[in-house]
Amino acid sequence: MSDRAAVALALAVCAGAWWSGDVPLVPAALGMAVALLVRRPMLLVAGAALVAAGLGHRAWDGLTPPAPADLVGQEVVLLSDPADVGGALRLDVGVGGRRVEAWARGAPAAALRSRLAGERVVVEGRLRPPPPDRRRWLALRHVSARMNVDEVTAWRRGSLATRVANGLRRTLVQGAATLERDRRALLTGFVLGDDRDQSTAVADDFKAAGLTHLLAVSGQNVAFVLVLCRPALRRLGLAGRWAASLAVISFFGLLTRWEPSVLRASAMAALAVTAVGLGRPTSRGRLLALAVAAVVLLDPLLVHSVGFRLSVGASAGILVLATPLARRLPGPRWLAEAVAVTLGAQVGVAPVLVPVFGGLPVASVPANLLAVPAAGPLMAWGLTAGLAAGVVGPPADAVLHLPTSWLLAWVAGVARWAATLPLGQLGLAHLGAAGAIVAVAAVGARWRRRVALPVGVAGVTLAVLAPALLPSTGALSAATPAAGARLWREGGVVLVLDDADGARLLEGLRRHAVRRLDVVVVTRGTKAQAATVALLRSRVDVGAVLAPRGHLIRGALVPAEGTVDVGGLRVVVAATEPALQAEVQAGPTS
After folding, report:
1. Which of 26, 155, 330, 555 measures 20 to 30 Å from 491, CA to CA?
2. Whole-prediction pTM value?
3. In this structure, what DSSP letter does residue 64 have?
4. What percent of the chain has pLDDT over 90?
5. In what helix (H) or strand (E) does residue 89 lie, and over which residues does it extend?
6. Do 248 and 305 share a domain, yes or no?
7. Cα 576 from Cα 68, distance rounded (Å)
8. How many structural domains are present in the chain?
9. 484 vs 444 pLDDT, higher one
């Protein structure tokens, strides 16, 4: 099979899985088998698309919500690590062949918090269908029901592989105990792809800087683990080396919880090891295409996973664009290659990031150039020295993690710096303009190479920097940057804070290019709202904070009933207890 045929196979499988039509599987599978025997690539492509569609249809059918039921003394297996969400504990568990999203509070949450995926617990609770408005979102995670956990009565460690994997995870986390909390959370992200303990502020920095991919397991992580095991693998025969390599890849997938990016990277590594074992090395492009086809056939719902699409897009962008860009970029080779890889990855993820998240941060280019060189050493040292630190304990663990701490400080500092750059985000219009300029420059280069190249570079630069050169400064009336918050901007900026989620609030303010809030109106002044105000103060310039009587917000003022003028806006305060009742209206401009 040629590289083009492999790409066609991957595209056809993804299209079939997206369609998920009711296709008879047996005839489609027989068609694939015949195509393999007679070596007809296009017939194989067609058959694979039909098989993917049939498998997708059956995957959706298997997610029919169950009837409500009470569970007493039910043993369930944890399918994900527990995570704190909104004051409760959330985790996925396996119940009777179903993947169920379980929620626990109070004593049951305390009993489950230290457990890890693969372990088994005996619970009492209530099984129910998911809410209609969340049903599709949960189904994309293979979740077909929800459960409230009322009691946890017993637990056990699970299989041998689970015990080993969880033991390594706990050792790594224990060894990082000397690190400051945010750096410890970043370390588990770099090494294991575990982002559960990341603070909202740090997570927003990495998102604004376009560096979230560093906190997901990639092919680099898998390659490093194989290199680490190479001395032992070399002692085996060819067949034994192949089997052991696959076992290492599988165990690493278990250790990192088989996230979508892990699936893609592991599939590519397994195919590469197999190709080498058969004496038939193949191109990276073909490996990527075959890996995508294989994992989507195994799990057709992956085509709807944003993480999977980002992983595939970044890999494809690097494979297609990095080498040609590196050849044409001026400057030292090491810099040209770094820039080329960064630009290739950003181009690859743009078709996913822009429609889903509303834009591609321009700051991601300088941020990746500065942070990526430290990511490899950080992952390598964090894994090896981190495990050693967990084994030897204090005080040696602090010494072993000194390089880890320095590297984490550098990457976190780059993310914080890039997040503050007033460069904005690239939308569909910017990307379309840049693409058009590149196409025109490519055509013009045939006749006037000396003119076309600088004109094309200048045009693309202007298109990319357009969000920064033309910032959004117009009036906003009752804009909602996140659920639970309302934003006004007309001469001044006023934010009315109800129950906004901190992460979504920061993202919304960044999307509206808001860097200063003249007045923040807090409706109730609870502990949760106090935490949100503290988060805002850590990331944007906050002026006055108005809160009701009895509030818990440091430095907030209780306003008198009446009006407060803010630029071209007027805040009308009607009451200050038990909640602050205020209305924002158009006011004086001077």
Report:
1. 555
2. 0.86
3. P
4. 50
5. strand 88-95
6. yes
7. 44
8. 5
9. 484
